[in-house]
Amino acid sequence: MAGCLDASSVAAVLARMAETRPRVHCLTNTVAQNVTANMLLAFGAIPSMAVHVDEVAGFAQGAGAILINLGTISAEGELAIPKLLEAARDHHKPLVLDPVFVELSPLRRHIAREVLRLPDVVVRGNATEMAALASELDAAERVTRVTTGKVDHIEGKRGALAIAHGHPLMTKVTGLGCASSALVAACCAVETDPVIAAGAALTAFGIAGEIAAAKSAGPGSFAVNLIDALASLDEALLRRHMGERA
Ligand SMILES: Nc1ncnc2c1ncn2[C@@H]1O[C@H](COP(=O)(O)OP(=O)(O)OP(=O)(O)O)[C@@H](O)[C@H]1O
Ligand SMILES: Cc1ncsc1CCO
Ligand SMILES: [Mg+2]
């Protein structure tokens, strides 16, 4: 049965984030680029976003983790992906795939298959995307599946977690799924177990969503308050929202 993390486990991952400030190299989409960079900074990580085929390898080799998001994949981005996969393989970097709209595009399915030739990939998508990619995920070696929604489901080699945090307003701001994938990548840079890393990222993000929603009049102010809430998380706030005593 799927478990959940306690506040001290999430706080331990966040403490390592604050201490080491990992850089996450993001090949992401033009819609979610800004919100993704802001969420990474609020989380204590550092975003980099280079796409050019002649510089992505260098950026990825020195990063703590790599994100490949297919949301607005371009011809330039497609050329960069083999360089990112090579950097992940040769330099043992955690890699997160966000297969945005894979159900709508044979090109995206082809790219996702290429990415999943690498073992140990973490895939974060919504229920539609994860269902569309089911056979590719079944064929992949040591993949971690992260399916977000009202409840987030994480399944990996070393167990399963179900995270019931967040707020419906999270579906009314574009790019928050994309940002959640970047936060999962950031946690993978400081936590070797991808199930715990994804669980910590999504617990923190969900609780930040709950805190932000309580202060917001609608999706616009929610987007701003979510950045503030993510930046202000500490163990006491986590405990309170997880129903644990101080
Ligand atoms: N109904 C809901 N209630 C609470 N939290 C939710 C709900 N739906 C999504 N979330 C949270 O919102 C975040 C984004 O997940 P979602 O599944 O909406 O991503 P997505 O569909 O890929 O989004 P996008 O493509 O717009 O970036 C996750 O942290 C998830 O837990
Ligand atoms: C709306 C949209 N279109 C491509 S990427 C993106 C952001 C949410 O995935
Ligand atoms: Mg998405």
From TrEMBL:
<keyword id="KW-0784">Thiamine biosynthesis</keyword>
<keyword id="KW-0808">Transferase</keyword>
<dbReference type="InterPro" id="IPR029056">
    <property type="entry name" value="Ribokinase-like"/>
</dbReference>
<feature type="binding site">
    <location>
        <position position="175"/>
    </location>
    <ligand>
        <name>substrate</name>
    </ligand>
</feature>
<protein>
    <recommendedName>
        <fullName>Hydroxyethylthiazole kinase</fullName>
        <ecNumber>2.7.1.50</ecNumber>
    </recommendedName>
</protein>
<dbReference type="Pfam" id="PF02110">
    <property type="entry name" value="HK"/>
</dbReference>
<dbReference type="GO" id="GO:0000287">
    <property type="term" value="F:magnesium ion binding"/>
</dbReference>
<keyword id="KW-0460">Magnesium</keyword>
<dbReference type="GO" id="GO:0005524">
    <property type="term" value="F:ATP binding"/>
</dbReference>
<keyword id="KW-0067">ATP-binding</keyword>
<comment type="function">
    <text>Catalyzes the phosphorylation of the hydroxyl group of 4-methyl-5-beta-hydroxyethylthiazole (THZ).</text>
</comment>
<feature type="binding site">
    <location>
        <position position="49"/>
    </location>
    <ligand>
        <name>substrate</name>
    </ligand>
</feature>
<keyword id="KW-0418">Kinase</keyword>
<feature type="binding site">
    <location>
        <position position="148"/>
    </location>
    <ligand>
        <name>ATP</name>
    </ligand>
</feature>
<keyword id="KW-0479">Metal-binding</keyword>
<dbReference type="GO" id="GO:0009229">
    <property type="term" value="P:thiamine diphosphate biosynthetic process"/>
</dbReference>
<comment type="pathway">
    <text>Cofactor biosynthesis; thiamine diphosphate biosynthesis; 4-methyl-5-(2-phosphoethyl)-thiazole from 5-(2-hydroxyethyl)-4-methylthiazole: step 1/1.</text>
</comment>
<feature type="binding site">
    <location>
        <position position="124"/>
    </location>
    <ligand>
        <name>ATP</name>
    </ligand>
</feature>
<comment type="similarity">
    <text>Belongs to the Thz kinase family.</text>
</comment>
<dbReference type="GO" id="GO:0009228">
    <property type="term" value="P:thiamine biosynthetic process"/>
</dbReference>
<dbReference type="InterPro" id="IPR000417">
    <property type="entry name" value="Hyethyz_kinase"/>
</dbReference>
<keyword id="KW-0547">Nucleotide-binding</keyword>
<dbReference type="GO" id="GO:0004417">
    <property type="term" value="F:hydroxyethylthiazole kinase activity"/>
</dbReference>
